[in-house]
Amino acid sequence: MSGQNAAMDGRLEFKGGGKPLAAALLGVACGASPLPFNVLPLVMGPINQEFGWDFAAISAGMTIFGIIASLMAPVYGGLADRFGVRPVALISLFVFGVVFGSLYFVPASLMGYWLLWGLLGAIGIGSTPVTWSRAISLWFNRNRGLALGIMLLGTSLAALVVPQIAQRAIAAGGWRMAFPVVALLPIFVALPIGLRWFREPRPHERPPGLSGADGKVAGICLAEAVRGYRFWLLLSSILMISLAYGGAHIHIAQIVGLHGFSAQVAASVLGVVAIGILSGRLIVGFLFDRFWAPGIAFPALLLPALACWLLMGTQASLTMVMMGAFLLGFAAGAESDVIAYLAAKYFGMAHYGRIYGVLYMPFGIGSAISPIIYGAVRDQTGGYDPMLMVSMFLFAGGGALLLPLGRYPQTHPAPVSDAQPAGAH
What is the pLDDT of residues 22-40, one digit of tens each? Predict the structure, then answer.
C-alpha cells in the first residue's frame, strides 16, 4: 500500500507542479546560463576581424560575465527567499534579454565590451537555476531529482536551437544581429509563459515534508549552514569538479584535434558531450529520488575520471574519444543536479536561494577559471595530458567528498526571523 501511496504522491506532484516546471525549463533555456555560451563562439571570429582584438581578450568577456554572475548569485538567491522567486526570476529574465540585445551596440572599445559583459553577469544570474530551482524544489519532494533534471534540460534545448537561430541572424544582418534576435527568446517566449504558469506553491499545495507544524517552509539559515561540516564538504566538492570540467568542455575540440581527427569530427564530438549532459541530468536525477544521492553521485563522478584517461595521449581511437566525451558530459549533468538537490536535502528550503547562491559561486568561478588553466597547460606543454591527469584526481576527490555528508536530516527547524517569501502566502 505504501508503494501505491508513493506513486500517487509522485503523480500529484507532477499534476500540481507540471506547469511551473515547464515554465522553469523554458526560463533556464532562455536565460543567462546557456544563451551567451551558445552565441559568443559564433561571433568571436567576426569580432576579431572587425576590431582586431585577440581571441583571449574576446573570451575574457565570458570570464568577466561568469565571475560577476557567480559573486551575485547569493544576492539573487537571498532576494528569492525573501520576496518569492517569481518576481526575481521574471524581472531578471526580462532585463537580461534587454541587456543581451544591447550587445548589438558593442563599441570599438575593449573596455566597453568588457563592461557590457560584466553588466550582463550582474543582472542575468537571476534568470539561471539559482532562482528557478527554488520553486521547483518547493513543488517537488518525492520526484525532486527528476524534476530538477527536467528543468536543467533547458540548457540542452538551448544548445540545439540557439546556435541555429544565431547563425541565421548573422547570415542575414551580420554578427551584431545575433544578439537582438536571440534576445527575443527570453522576452517573447520564456517571459509570457513564466507570467502565466510560473509560481511557488501555496502552503496547502506543497508536498509533505517541506513545511513545519506552523505551515512555514522549514530549513536552516546560511549562518547555520556554514557552521556545519556538510556545507564545506559540498562547496569543496563543487569547486574541485568545476575546475576539472570547465576547461575540458571548452577545449574538447582541441583535445579531439590532437588525436588526429578533423574539425568535422570534433563538431560531432561536441554533440556527444551534449547527449551526455542530457543523459546525466535525467538518469542521475531519477536515481537521486530513489537512493541516497551521495552514493549515486560518487560513482557518477568517477566516470569523467575515466574519461580523462581515455582522452590522454594522441593515439586514442574515435570510439574511445567519443566515450570520453560522453562521460564528460554525463558528469556535467550530474554536477548540476548535485548542487540543487543536496542543498535542499541537507539545508532545507527556508533559505535555499541564499545557500544555493553561495554554493553556486565556486561552480561559476571554477568553470570560468578552468579554461584558462587548460589553455596555459596547452601553451606550456603542447598538449593537455598534465591537466587531464590532475582532473582525474579532482573528479574522483570531488565525488569522494560527498560520501561523508551522511544521512539526510529528518527534519529542519522552521525559520524564526526571516520574512516568508511573497509567493508562499
Answer: 999 999 999 998 899 888 8
Q: Which residues, in sequence order, are CB contacts of 132 under 8 Å at separation 6+?
A: 24, 27, 28, 31, 85, 89, 151
Distance CA 274, CA 343 (A): 25
> Can you tell me the distance from the alpha carbon of 189 to that of 185, in angstroms, rounded to the nearest whole number?
5
* Residue keyed to cell 541530468: 281
Per the DSSP assignment, residues forming a β-bridge with 283 are none
C-beta pairs of 211-215 under 8 Å, 24+ apart in sequence: 212/413, 212/414, 213/414, 214/414
**Bridge partners of 219?**
348
- Please tell me the distance from the alpha carbon of residue 275 to that of residue 330, in angstroms, as a whole number: 8
Which one-letter DSSP state was computed for residue 316? -
Q: What is the 3-state secondary structure (H, E, C) of 176-202?
A: HHHHHHHHHHHHHHHHHHHHHHCCCCC
Checking phi first, is residue 348 left (phi over 0); if not, alpha (psi -120 to 50) or beta?
left
- Residue 222 · residue 358 · CB < 8 Å: yes
Backbone angles phi, psi at 217, to 5 degrees: -65, 130
Task: Report in angstroms the alpha-carbon separations of 242 from 18, 42, 119, 157, 246.
Answer: 30, 24, 23, 22, 6
Whats the size of the chain, residue-wise?
425
What's the CA gap between 259 and 241, in Å, rounded? 24
What's the predicted TM-score (pTM) here?
0.83
Domains and CATH numbers, the chain: 13-206 (1.20.1250.20), 216-406 (1.20.1250.20)
Q: Residue 9 — pLDDT band, cuts 50, 70, 90?
A: low
